[in-house]
């Protein structure tokens, strides 16, 4: 089990928990989104202590566990075992591999429940390869929840000069936006990706939560427009 911090409420029906990621400078973030009846969807799950599972359960009933992209599923199986009643949704590209490791209900591209969509929108981002990420819009808190599509890190978040130099080349550690790798290696169709970003920008969000870096608490739509050149 890796170290992590407290569960923090950011808005109406949304919480985050930040933790270490294999001693990496990147760290990681788990997000919990509530439906109006306080059923809970866990995004980017990781292993928790028993008392923190109890804290999670005090918020509501975990009905969904989401692997948000193909690179963020290392510890989801642990939480799947803790909540056998929850639906487990993963990217279609990771479906075969995930089924070997744990129970899977379906894929994000086809099986997002209609009854959740009025409160939490799931948008599989088109034009990507390798990471196969989906974006989520939590309406009650006006939050856009992403994984690796954007970072929001500073140079001082990295431990050594060489690490800072490499991350600066990758446009990570220079503030909010997509990495150079996301724009090249992880994107196969920039036009399709741009259409998905346009859909996100049609949503009424203000906060942006990502897996690596500082949560952007306000001004999220304008910052996304600038980062993706809209």
Helix and strand arrangement:
Blueprint (H helix, E strand, L loop, with lengths): L7 E4 L2 E6 L8 E7 L4 E5 L6 H10 L1 E6 L9 H7 L4 E4 L4 H7 L4 E2 H4 L2 H4 L2 E5 L9 E5 L4 E3 L5 E4 L6 H9 L4 E4 L2 H4 L6 H12 L5 E3 L10 H8 L3
Parallel strand pairs: 4-5, 5-6, 6-7, 10-13
Antiparallel strand pairs: 1-2, 2-3, 3-4, 8-9, 9-10, 11-12
Question: What would CATH call the architecture?
Answer: 4-Layer Sandwich
Number of helices: 9
Describe the global form. globular
Number of domains: 1
Give the mean pLDDT.
Answer: 95
**Name of the CATH superfamily:** Ribonuclease Z/Hydroxyacylglutathione hydrolase-like
Protein structure class: alpha/beta
CATH topology: Metallo-beta-lactamase, Chain A
Query: N-to-C terminal Cα separation, in Å?
Result: 41 Å
How many extended strands? 13
The ordered H/E elements are EEEEHEHEHEHHEEEEHEHHEH
Q: Briefly, what CATH class?
A: Alpha Beta
Helix amount: 25-40%
Low-confidence residue ranges: none
Instruction: Give me the Rg, rounded.
Output: 17 Å
Provide tags for this entry.
single chain; 230 residues; Metallo-beta-lactamase, Chain A; 13 strands; 25% strand
Q: Quick summary of this structure?
A:
By secondary structure, the protein is of the alpha/beta class. The chain has one domain: 4-Layer Sandwich (Metallo-beta-lactamase, Chain A), CATH 3.60.15. Helix content is 28%, strand content 25%.
How would you describe this structure to a colleague?
- The protein has 230 residues and is α/β, with parallel strands linked by helices.
- It has one domain (8-227): Metallo-beta-lactamase, Chain A, CATH 3.60.15.10.
- It is built from 9 helices and 13 strands.
- Strands 1-2-3-4-5-6-7 form a 7-stranded mixed β-sheet. The chain has a 4-stranded mixed β-sheet with strand order 8-9-10-13, with no helix packed on it.
- α3 links the parallel β6 and β7.
- The N and C termini lie far apart (41 Å).
- The relative contact order is 0.14.
């Amino acid at each position: 089990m890796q170290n992590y911090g407290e569960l923090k409420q950011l808005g109406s029906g949304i919480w985050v928990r930040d933790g270490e990621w294999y001693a990496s400078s990147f760290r990681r973030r788990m997000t919990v989104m509530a439906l109006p009846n306080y059923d809970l969807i866990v995004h980017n799950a990781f292993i928790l202590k028993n008392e923190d599972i109890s804290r999670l359960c005090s918020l509501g009933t975990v009905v969904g566990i989401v692997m948000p992209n193909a690179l963020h599923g290392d510890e989801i199986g642990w939480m799947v075992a803790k909540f056998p009643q929850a639906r487990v949704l993963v990217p279609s590209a990771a479906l075969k591999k995930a089924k070997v490791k744990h129970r899977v209900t379906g894929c994000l591209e086809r099986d997002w429940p209609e009854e959740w969509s009025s409160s939490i929108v799931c948008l599989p981002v088109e034009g990507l390869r390798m990471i196969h990420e989906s974006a989520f819009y939590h309406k009650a808190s006006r939050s856009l929840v992403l994984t690796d599509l954007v970072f929001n890190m500073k140079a001082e978040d990295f431990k050594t000069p060489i690490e800072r130099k490499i991350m600066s080349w990758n446009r990570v550690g220079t503030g909010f936006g997509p990495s150079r790798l996301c724009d090249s290696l992880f994107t196969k169709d920039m036009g399709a990706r741009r259409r998905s970003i346009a859909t996100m920008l049609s949503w009424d969000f203000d906060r942006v939560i990502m897996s690596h870096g500082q949560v952007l608490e306000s001004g999220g739509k304008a910052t996304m427009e600038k980062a993706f050149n809209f």
